[in-house]
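Sample log: Outer membrane biogenesis protein BamB.
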Amino acid sequence: MKLRHAPLSLLVCLLGLSVHLGLSPCSAGDTDWPQWRGPNRDGHAAKQDLMKSWPAEGPEIKWQAENLGRGYSTAAVVDGRLYTLGADATDCFAICLDAATGESVWKTNVSRASNGDDYNHGWGGGPRSTPTIDGDQVFVLSDIGTLASLERTTGKVQWQVDIVQSFGGKIPMWGYSESLLVDGDRVVVTPGESNFMVALDRKDGSKVWQSKGSDAPAHYVSPIKGSVGETSFYVTASKPGLLAFDCKSGDLVFSDGSTGNGVAVIPTPIISGNSLYHTSDYGSGNTLLSLTHSGKSQSGAGEGGAGEGSAGQGSAGQGGVDVTTVYHLSGKTMQNHHGGVVLVDGVIYGFTKANGGVWMAQDLATGETLWEEKTGRDGSGSIAYADGRLYCYYDKDGSLFLVDPNRKGWTLAGQLKLPQQTNLPRDKGAIWAHPIIADGMLIIRDQDLMFAYNIAE
C-alpha cells in the first residue's frame, strides 16, 4: 500500500423522549466514528474541536493511502485504527490502517469478488457497506452477501455467513449495500425476500431473530433501532417503503409506503423525539411520521403486511405503535438519492435530485423548503455534520464544501477538491463514499485512494 505524506515541517505545524434512537454501546474513543453515519448512525460526528473555517487552499492533507481496491465503502475509525472494504479481480477484503499515518495494519479476504453475473456492474463493482466496529469485533458485509466477523486487532476471521444461501436472500440490482447494525449480542442484516431481516448471534453467527410477515426485496438502506413506550423496533426501508419490526417478536410494528419506489430506496431514516423522517429519490420525496404508544398489547394489534402503508398514510402493525403522517411531499422538495441527510436544530440538510440537483435545507416540522444551493451539474452529494459545520461532498468532481448550518441560506466557510481521482474505471458511477470526521481528521475515499485532512482546531 503506497502512501504519500505531507512534508515533515508541515506535519509538525499541524500537530500544534417517548421515542428515541436505541444504539448498542461501541468500545470507541471520544472522537471515533465506529460505524455507518457515525456513533449514532445519524451523520453526526463525535464531539471534537475542529476548524470553523478553512484557508482558501483548503486544509492540509495529513496522509494519503493508495491500493485500497475498488468499491464505495466508506471508513470506520476506532481507537486510532481505520477500517474499510475493497476488492480486486478475485477477492473482496477488509482493510485496517493506522488512522494517524495511513500505514497498513492488516488485510483479510472475506469473500470472492463480485462480477457482472452477480448484479449490475454498470455503475461500478466492489463492496458498498461500511464496517461496524463493536468491542473487539469488526463486522462486515460484502456486496454479494457474505457477512463476516473479524478479530479487531488481527483481522482474523471468527465466522462467516452467506446470507443468500443461508436465508434465501437475493442480491439487489446494485449489490448489497447495507451497513450492519450491532444491537447488544445481535448483528442485524437484511437478506431480503421471505426472511426479510434477520439477527445473528455475534459470537458464532447463528440466527437468533427474524422479521415476520414481510416478503420484500433487499434494497440499500441501513437500519436503525428505535422505541415507542415499551416497544423497541428495527426500522429500514425497501421497495414497499418503511418497515419496522419488533425487536422481540419480529412482528411488523408499522409500515409506510410514502418513500418506497421500485428502483432504489437508499437513505437511512432519522428518528428525532417522537418523529421519524425519511426521504428517497425516483419521485418518492420525503415524509415525516409521528409515532406514539398505542396502549395495545404486542399480540393484539391486528394484522400488518409489508407495504400496507399507502403513500402519505402510515399503517400500524402488530406492535403498540400508532402512526400519523405529518406530511408527505414530492416534486420540488427533498428527494435524496443516496448521499443521506442530517438533522441539525430542527432543519434537514442534504442533496436533492429535484430542481436539477441542489443542496437543500428543509424545516423538519413543516417540510417547508428554506433554501437551495446549486454547486454543479447533474450530480449528487453526501453529507456529514461535525462541531457546528456541515461537510457537503459533491460526487462529480470530488469537491467538498464546509458550510455553516442555518435557516437563512448557504453560508460557505471553506472548500477543497481532491488532489487526484482514481484511475480505476467506475463506468457510470461517481465518488460515492461518504466523508467521515474522526480524530480531528476529515477522511474521504475515492475507490483505491483515501485522503486524510487535518481539520483539528
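Observation: The radius of gyration is 21 Å.
Observation: The chain has one domain: 3-16+19-454.
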